[in-house]
Write a structure and sequence with these properties.
single chain; alpha/beta; D-Maltodextrin-Binding Protein, domain 2; 2 domains; five-stranded mixed β-sheet; 9 helices; 36% helix; globular
Length: 266
């Protein structure tokens, strides 16, 4: 048996607080020591998860399909969140909200032709893949935006919109909702001009390097969180309704989007 159970998040940093609490909860429910790995960059967290040094992680759906389809890494699905907001209709999905500065002249995605656009990073479904997929559905295969830059993170791209260094970006809807809850004043500084998606929501994955019975115990603890008072309180803080079972085929929409998106160059 490993000591301790190591858990991480490769989501936006504003999800770390909820993930730390989920880690503590799992340790208590499973009767094991549990440690949240949050003192390194998200790239290092991902590297350790891929290497099996971290046992459980919350990752984006696009890297998930790459890891299991191409890299053949020993990871499998554990659970996926269903967010509390009514827009998600109690399904494990999320959106990409296209945001601009409140005083911007842009009113829709179509208005953004020639604009300065930022994406968070190229392994993101919500910030990168979905935007290129959307452009492909419009038969806009090159040159739609005037300038495209990599921000490095959703929250960095959001700040760039606020500072008017860029015109627009697509941000994970769950990240935006958490940030608006933490910083209500943002509601008066930003506008959502379009919404892309839905996409299958970022899943929790578990390493196959740990014993199958323990992997199953982790899954069941996650699936039952909403049924316990302590678990429900933790999920609510993260604006999560519950964690549910998902299958690999549930991420096929991302695979299909990626195929079409590959035809688009910025």
């Amino acid at each position: 048996m490993f000591h301790p159970l190591k858990v991480t998040s490769i989501q936006s940093p504003n999800a770390d607080a909820a993930c730390r609490q989920i880690t503590r909860y799992l340790g208590e429910q499973l009767g094991v020591a549990a440690e949240f790995v949050g003192d390194v960059t998200w790239q290092e967290r991902e590297h350790r998860l891929d290497a099996g040094e971290i046992h459980l992680g919350w990752i984006c759906g696009l890297p998930y399909v790459h890891k299991v389809d191409t890299a053949r890494l020993p990871l499998e699905l554990a659970a996926a969140p269903v967010m509390r907001h009514p827009r998600y209709r109690q399904q494990p999905v999320y959106f990409s909200d296209v945001i601009v500065h409140r005083d911007s002249r842009f009113r829709s995605f179509a208005d953004l032709r020639g604009a300065t656009w930022a994406y968070n990073e190229p392994h993101s479904q919500s910030g990168y893949n979905l935007t290129r997929y959307h452009l492909a559905t419009l038969a806009e295969y090159s040159g739609f935006f005037g300038r495209v830059i990599e921000a490095g993170a959703h929250l960095t791209a959001l700040e760039m919109v606020l500072d008017r260094r860029i015109d627009a970006t697509a941000i994970d809807s769950t990240v935006l909702e958490l940030e608006l809850a933490a910083r209500p004043q943002l509601g008066g500084q930003l506008r959502v001009i379009d919404t892309l998606g839905p996409s299958p929501i970022p899943p929790w994955v578990v390493s196959k390097n740990i014993a199958p019975p323990f992997r199953e115990a982790i899954r069941h603890a996650l699936w039952q969180m909403h049924a316990t008072p302590a678990g429900q309180a933790i999920l609510s803080e993260g604006q999560i309704l519950k964690l549910v079972r998902v299958e690999d085929r549930d991420y096929d929409p991302i695979r299909k989007m990626a195929q079409l998106a590959s035809q688009v160059s910025w």
